[in-house]
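Structure (tokenized):
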């Protein structure tokens, strides 16, 4: 039996450190690894 996970937002890549993460539909978008606020976020499509 499997459950559907709740949507985690859009997958992003930090322009400062390159970390990949989900934005969790939050504004502003902040990298969880380096705490950089992303003004022009990069969306990862894959």
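Design, position by position:
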């Amino acid at each position: 039996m499997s459950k559907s996970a709740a949507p985690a937002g859009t997958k992003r890549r930090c322009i400062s450190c390159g970390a990949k993460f989900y934005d969790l539909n939050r504004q502003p978008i902040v990298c969880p690894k380096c705490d950089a606020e992303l003004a022009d976020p990069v969306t990862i499509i894959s």
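Reviewer-requested clarification: The radius of gyration is 12 Å. The longest strand covers residues 11-13.
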